């Protein structure tokens, strides 16, 4: 039930879409951790080296939240990077009522979050959050182009994001989120999340 961007990412990386193993889900669309364990064992038996598990918090069709604690346990046992696609569901963390759906997300190595979805921030507003504090993105993507990223600026050059991302000319998405948060407040954003859930329940009923 994961987003199509997972296979797209494998294609961009040159791994090929066949390198993506899909894991079974239950009737509610949640990943089954036991099948994840089985898929990892099957891959290893074939001489393949798994390295990443992509869980989803808020799938596109059903809005399912994968059981992150159990998935994190599997990843920890096998030494795998845990990524959580919380593009839609990450905003649930702002709701006291529904945040339990994200239990275990603090164990992820990386999290993708799109406030332009559930919070309705202006399109686009995306964040990639990493547990790593070693400036991983700069080490992976940095090219130190001196004609763009001069070091003699009047501010802390560590704030420059251009040499840390794939696309250099990205807009400053966080400003939209910050302005909206200042205007609505934490309670205002919580109400947006709770209202979306209330409307979903109303539609189901």
TrEMBL record:
Q: Does the keyword Protein transport apply?
A: no
Q: Which regions span the lipid bilayer? A: none
The UniProt keywords, alphabetically, are: Decarboxylase, Lyase, Pyridoxal phosphate
Query: What GO terms describe the biological role, i.e. biological process, of this protein?
Result: carboxylic acid metabolic process; taurine biosynthetic process
Reading the lineage from the top rank, the first entry is Eukaryota
N6-(pyridoxal phosphate)lysine PTM positions read: 117
Signal peptide limits: none
Name the coenzymes or cofactors required: pyridoxal 5'-phosphate
Against InterPro entries, the record matches this protein to: PyrdxlP-dep_de-COase, PyrdxlP-dep_Trfase, PyrdxlP-dep_Trfase_major, Pyridoxal-P_BS
Molecular function GO terms recorded: pyridoxal phosphate binding; sulfinoalanine decarboxylase activity
Q: Which GO terms describe its cellular component?
A: cytoplasm
Q: Which family does it belong to?
A: Belongs to the group II decarboxylase family.
Name-wise, this protein is Cysteine sulfinic acid decarboxylase
Instruction: Give the organism, scientific name.
Output: Mustela putorius furo
Q: What is the lineage of its organism?
A: Eukaryota, Metazoa, Chordata, Craniata, Vertebrata
């Amino acid at each position: 039930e994961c987003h199509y961007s997972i296979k797209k990412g494998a294609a961009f990386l040159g791994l090929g879409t066949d390198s993506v193993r899909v894991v079974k889900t239950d009737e509610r669309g949640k990943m089954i951790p036991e099948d994840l364990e089985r898929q990892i064992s099957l891959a290893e038996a074939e001489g393949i080296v798994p390295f990443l598990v992509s869980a989803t918090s808020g799938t596109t069709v059903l809005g399912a939240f994968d059981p992150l604690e159990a998935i994190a346990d599997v990843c920890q046992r096998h030494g795998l990077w845990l990524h959580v696609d919380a593009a839609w569901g990450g905003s649930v963390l702002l709701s006291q009522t529904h945040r339990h759906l994200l239990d275990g997300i603090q164990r992820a190595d990386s999290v993708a979050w799109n406030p332009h979805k559930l919070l309705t921030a202006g399109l686009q507003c995306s964040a990639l959050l990493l547990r790593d504090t070693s400036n991983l993105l700069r080490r992976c993507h940095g090219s130190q182009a001196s004609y763009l990223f001069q070091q003699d600026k009047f501010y802390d050059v560590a704030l420059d994001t251009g040499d840390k991302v794939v696309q250099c000319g990205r807009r400053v998405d966080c400003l939209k989120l910050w302005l909206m948060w200042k205007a609505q407040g934490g309670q205002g954003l919580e109400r947006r999340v709770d209202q979306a859930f209330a409307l979903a329940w109303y539609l189901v009923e």
